[in-house]
Design a protein that fits this description.
The chain is built from six helices and seven strands. With about 220 residues, the chain is α/β, with parallel strands linked by helices. It has a seven-stranded mixed β-sheet with strand order 3-2-1-4-5-7-6, with helices on both faces. β1, α3 and β2 form a beta-alpha-beta unit. It is globular.
Length: about 220
């Protein structure tokens, strides 16, 4: 199966997800909802499970959330998360259908994930929060880093669609490919602001925009 496909998962794909693993159970639920591109399932899963290994127990704010799958998977992986907010300027109408299908299979998700159609800056963020984003396009990733540092929150980002004209390259393009220079500069900025940063990758066959940045304030254990 091509994990990078933008085709929507539906009931025809159920035969690919037959095990009792949590991922296959989530995948079957996504297939039943019939509204999510295949690559978004894999991106959210691979990102969420890497975050879970590093950070737990914080309120999750899923920035530019789309269908909000990342927020729901984070709560499924970590029952110590008190709540999650899925925020986007334009939330797809089908997001509610996906959420209802997930809740149908995992009733403990009920009232744990709240959708908010709003600008990112309209959300009140505090130091106990974890901001997450899968493929916040261009300068959106930089805005999320701004909000993170201002609130002294934690953050996990999978950037994409780098803005080569407006994002800071750290004057490293003489050595580094420009999009890598932007992400290296983002890491350096977080470190300079007093963050411990872990850099990882999700599998390339899901997306070539696969660099994951996970950062927590240095005084957070």
């Amino acid at each position: 199966m091509d994990r990078s496909s933008r085709n929507r998962l539906n009931e025809r794909h159920l035969e690919h997800f037959t095990s009792d693993s949590l991922f296959d159970k989530i995948a079957r639920t996504v297939c039943a909802a019939g509204c999510l591109p295949r690559k978004e399932l894999y991106e959210a899963w691979e990102t969420a499970r890497r975050i879970r290994r590093r950070i737990s127990g914080k309120r999750v704010i899923d920035m530019a959330c789309g269908h909000g799958l990342l927020a729901h998977i984070m709560v499924l992986l970590d029952d110590t998360i008190p709540a999650a907010i899925a925020v986007d300027k334009s939330i797809p109408k089908s997001a509610s259908s996906l959420a209802e299908t997930l809740i149908g299979n995992w009733p403990r998700l009920k009232d744990r994930v709240e959708f908010r159609q709003a600008d990112l800056t309209d959300i009140e963020i505090n130091s106990d929060d974890l901001l997450v984003s899968v493929h916040g396009c261009g300068r959106l990733t930089d805005r999320i880093i701004d909000l993170t540092i201002e609130a002294k929150a934690s953050v996990a980002l999978l950037p994409c669609c780098h803005d080569l004209k407006r994002s800071d390259t750290g004057e490293l393009t003489g050595w580094l490919e420009p999009t890598l220079a932007i992400d290296v500069t983002r890491v350096s900025r977080l470190q300079s602001a007093g963050y411990n940063v872990v850099t990882q990758e999700i599998p390339y066959d899901i997306t070539p925009k696969n660099r994951l940045i996970i950062a927590t304030p240095e005084d957070v254990v």
